[in-house]
Structures are given as C-alpha cells and as structure tokens.
Design brief:
Blueprint lengths: L8 H54 L5 H29 L7 E4 H11 L1 H6 L3 E4 L4 E4 L1 H17 L8 E8 L2 H6 L8 E8 L30 H11 L3 E7 L3 E9 L4
Parallel strand pairs: 2-4
Antiparallel strand pairs: 1-3, 4-5, 5-7, 6-7
Length: 265
C-alpha cells in the first residue's frame, strides 16, 4: 500500500474511538435486553400464581358439581400454568448469567463430583453408566461451569430411546497448536477440550447449530423441557471466551465439546 493510501494516525485514532463506542453500545444493548427479560419474567409470575390459586379455589368450591369434561379442562389449565412457570424460570436463568463474575481456578473433577453426587438418585434410577478420565483445572466461574456439566449430563440421561440405559463418557485433552489456529484461539494460551459422549437418540448434522439455540426442541413434545439447557451452556462457555459445539448421529448418540482456557499458576 502506498503512503498516500494509508490512513493517517488521526484517522486511526478516530476509528478506534468509533469501535470502542460501538462495542460499548452493543454491551449496553445486551445488558438492557437481559434486564428486560429478567423483569418481564418476574412480572409474569404474579398473574400465573393468581391463575393457579383461582383454579384451586374453583375445584375446592365447586368440585362436587364438576363433570369429567370440566375436570379435564381444569387439569389442562394447571398443566399449562406449570409449563409457563417453568419457561419463565428458564428465561430468568438465561438472563442472570453474567460475564466476568468470580472467575477463579476451577477443578473440573470436583465440579463433576458435585454434579454426580447431587444427581445420584436420578442416574441410579436410570441405570446410568458414567466413565470419566482425569479433568483439568480451568479458569472460570465455578457455579456457571457446574450448570454446564449438569445440563449436558441431564440431557444425556433424558434423551434416550425407551428401555435403554444411558452411557456417558467424559474425557479431556490438550488442544494442539494446529487446533488453536482452526478455532481462531490465541496461540499463547493453553486450552483443554472436554468431551461428553453419550449413547442417546442423537441428532442429524444439519441440526447441530440449531440445538444450541434457546427454545429449540428437536423432538417436539416427546421429551420434557423447554429447550433452554444447551443455550444456557452455550452462553456460559462464550462468556468464558471458550467454544461449545455439538456433534451427533441420528439414533446413535451425541458428543458435546467444551474448549476452555486452562488455569496456569
């Protein structure tokens, strides 16, 4: 490039200032969006509680006069109220995840132990087999990473063909220099790749990106949930400046991959 075509030092300063301003504006918009979701979700809970209360009173006051059709309608109202409450709770969780809060050394082995201990009844009932190799220490938010582990393991247990026992393999490995380039990661940092492999119902390759979006339910009403768990994981890993992606084979299983910066003394 000739000297004449190069931007002046003053122009570079102006462009950097514009970039900072646009970044600040974007951060502000994201913050306002999350605050709106948080406040709206709380405001929506009040009418739902009233609806639930009035439904209970109706059954109490007029129960003996209600025929089978009326009772069926009331049961459907109660079911939809619970579903809406669950959806609002998930929205709140998504909006409450914040960047840069309480980052520290996190031993993923301990985080996994805590998740498995809390969910021990669930995975024992489902006869879940869990195979784990040694996991690294990561720089991050312990509470948020625990949510990631819990959601991925819950999904592996939930999305199973009828009658099949879940099997989950959790492993970790160091990202090499070539892989850092592939994922456009800073070469000076050390990254670990944590894999969660399961034998569930899987998904097609074209669904891999959609599965990480909020409220996407690939299997409709066949399985419980609001389609928020993996979106929550995706947001948390992005806030850790990491990478989260999924691979699947229909009716064969899924692999969920986390790439996170290792904690170094």
């Amino acid at each position: 490039m000739s000297t004449e075509n190069r931007p002046s030092e003053q122009r570079i300063i102006e462009l950097e200032k514009e970039l900072r301003q646009k970044t600040d504006d974007l951060d502000s918009c994201k913050k306002e969006k999350d605050e709106f979701i948080y406040l709206a979700s709380h405001d929506l809970k009040a009418p739902l509680r009233k609806l639930s209360t009035f439904t209970e009173r109706l059954v109490h006051l007029a129960g003996e006069y209600l025929n089978e059709d009326a009772r069926s309608c009331i049961a459907r109202i109660e079911k939809n109220v619970l579903s809406m409450q669950s959806l609002i709770d998930d929205l709140s969780k998504l909006s409450e995840i914040e960047a840069g809060s309480d980052f520290e050394k996190c031993d993923l082995n301990q985080i996994l132990d805590d998740v498995l201990e809390e969910a021990s009844v669930q995975w024992k009932i489902n006869r879940t087999a869990i195979h784990v190799s040694a996991l690294p220490e990561i720089y991050g938010n312990r509470r948020q990473l625990k949510m990631v582990f819990k959601n991925i393991i819950d999904n592996a247990i939930k999305f199973q063909p009828g009658g099949q026992s879940p099997e989950i393999t959790i492993s970790a490995g160091l990202l090499n220099e070539e892989e850092k380039v592939t994922f456009n990661l800073p070469p000076e940092n050390v990254y670990d790749e944590i894999k969660f492999e399961d034998n569930g119902i899987g998904f097609s390759e074209k669904e891999a990106a959609d599965i990480l979006k909020p409220f996407v339910r690939l299997n409709g009403q066949s399985y419980p949930g609001n389609g928020i768990g993996l979106a929550l994981c995706n947001k948390i890993i992005k806030l850790h400046n990491g990478i989260f992606y999924a691979k699947g084979i229909q009716n064969k299983g899924s692999v969920f991959v986390l790439i996170l910066r290792r904690f170094l003394q």
